[in-house]
Design a protein that fits this description.
By secondary structure, this protein is mainly alpha-helical. It has helices spanning 21-44, 61-85, 89-103, 106-111, 115-137, and strands at residues 50-51, 57-58.
């Protein structure tokens, strides 16, 4: 006698995707657009968008887009591979990146030429950290 239901061993585990890649890509693109809007608002309200590095660097729209997409993409790839084996890592990665985003808001104020630039860049850091939290903590359980 056969049954319609396949039996599965409780020890058999199949790695599931930690998050949906398409959804993550949409969040990354939305984050880049959001940071571009923050940049435009900051620039129009008087931020010089110049930071003191070894050579003074003026931040422009291409740098904002790249600096939004690259960290989220690399963090997503690393989280994807680790969380496939250790599913709890997804939550830990979200918490760690969220904490790093909050702590990294100090750097723009230390490196910016003016307070408006520091504030604008700090908001951009929070947007990227918030996007990573949103992507990992509201996705697949």
């Amino acid at each position: 006698m056969t049954t319609a239901y396949a039996t599965r061993s409780p020890l058999a585990t199949t790695p599931t995707a930690p998050f949906r890649r398409a959804r993550y890509a949409v969040i990354v693109a939305t984050t880049a657009l959001s940071n571009l809007i923050v940049f435009l608002v900051g620039s129009s309200s008087g931020a010089s968008m110049v930071v003191n590095t070894p050579a003074a660097t003026e931040i422009g729209p291409p740098l904002v887009i790249v600096a939004s997409i690259v960290p989220l993409t690399l963090a997503g790839i690393a989280t994807w591979f680790v969380a496939k084996r250790v599913p709890a890592f997804r939550v830990w990665a979200a918490r760690i990146v969220g904490a790093v985003a909050v702590l990294s808001t100090i750097a723009p104020f230390a490196m910016a030429v003016d307070v408006a630039t520091g504030s604008t860049l700090a908001v951009m850091h929070l947007v990227v950290g918030g996007a990573f939290l949103l992507a990992l903590l509201t996705g697949r359980r």
